[in-house]
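Project outcomes to date are best conveyed with an example. Our students and postdoctoral researchers have been running inverse folding experiments weekly, and each run begins with a structure described purely in tokens. The record below, which covers 325 residues, was selected by the lab manager from last quarter's runs and is presented without edits.
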């Protein structure tokens, strides 16, 4: 294992979450961030989660996320693995990871489906560490025109991660098309297309596919519409807050689900349960908001301090050039 990243900052605490910011190339203002986190009260030996970036920034520009301070160039497979290596070598320098649930989420900066190197990393991961309970997680908005990526994903899951050792999550956020387009302003699969793909992806013994709803107040989330398209035997519902970010504040998006008042989510949870779905109300630790560990915040801050934000965002390339099929 070798590391090419230059770590320029580390923030947080070992009992909850550590956020790393790394420079991609010495002498150039190009940054990524990645995270290791726990789920109190579970100790690290029970559950350890690594959250890595797959792009430099993100082109999707969701109004609830701060990860779009850079245009979103794909990282190489080596650059993605280097993030994992850095966190593993700090805790388990021999590469033996005796964790009951070792989760690697491709969900920090950038949508993983926009980077074919993510498939290469998934193919390589099982050989890099002695981690029998490794569970990769792909979290995606389901970008359009990524058929090759999603077909390869089915193959790598079936070949290497059978028996519930893979998690796939789609960000949905709203069941109203216009509202969904506002929250995810990027070409993406329709809800019916996601359902059809999920039916082909799911195999006996797999974890259910997650449909994630961040919950801005006033946006439609209709359990009936979801039930018409999705089978509760193959899909589950995850309801999360709109985390506090600079973009969320700028767009004046108030979260329906609030950590201090989880009971306010009860009607929404009940509507999905009555439709037959398993529901996860995932509020997380409020301390992560205090750390400021929501997506893109640390890179955005560093870019503003150095002026890199203005330089990077003025250097756009066509979508086809940035994200090869």
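After processing, the design step wrote out the following sequence:
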């Amino acid at each position: 294992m070798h590391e090419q990243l230059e770590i320029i900052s580390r923030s947080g605490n070992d009992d909850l979450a550590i956020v790393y910011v790394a420079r991609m190339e010495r002498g150039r203002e190009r940054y990524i961030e990645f995270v290791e986190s726990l789920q109190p009260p579970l100790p690290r030996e029970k559950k350890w989660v690594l959250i890595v970036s797959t792009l430099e920034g993100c082109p999707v520009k969701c109004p609830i996320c701060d990860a779009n301070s850079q245009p979103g160039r794909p990282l190489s497979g080596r650059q993605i693995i280097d993030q994992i290596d850095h966190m593993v070598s700090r805790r388990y320098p021999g590469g033996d990871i005796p964790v009951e649930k070792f989760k690697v989420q491709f969900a920090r900066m950038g949508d993983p489906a926009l980077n074919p190197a993510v498939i290469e990393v998934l193919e390589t991961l099982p050989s890099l560490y002695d981690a029998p309970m490794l569970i990769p997680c792909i979290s995606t908005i389901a970008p359009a025109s990524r058929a090759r990526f999603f077909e390869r994903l089915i193959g790598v899951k079936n070949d290497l991660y059978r028996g519930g050792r893979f998690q796939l999550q789609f960000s949905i956020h709203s069941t109203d098309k216009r509202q969904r387009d506002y929250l995810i302003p990027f070409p993406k699969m329709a809800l019916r297309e996601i359902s059809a793909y999920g039916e082909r992806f799911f195999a006996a013994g797999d974890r259910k596919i997650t449909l994630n709803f961040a919950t801005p107040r006033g946006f439609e989330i209709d359990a009936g519409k979801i039930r018409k398209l999705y089978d509760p035997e193959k899909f589950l519902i995850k309801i999360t807050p709109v985390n506090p970010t600079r973009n969320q504040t700028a767009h004046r998006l108030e979260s329906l689900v609030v950590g201090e008042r989880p009971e306010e989510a009860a009607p929404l949870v009940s509507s999905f349960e009555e439709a037959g779905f398993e529901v996860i109300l995932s509020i997380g630790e409020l301390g992560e908001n205090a750390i400021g560990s929501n997506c893109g915040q640390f890179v955005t801050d560093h870019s503003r301090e150095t002026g890199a934000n203005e330089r990077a965002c003025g250097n756009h390339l066509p979508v086809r050039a940035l994200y090869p099929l």
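The CA atoms of residues 145 and 320 lie 10 Å apart. The two ends are 28 Å apart (CA to CA). The training component of this project remains on track.
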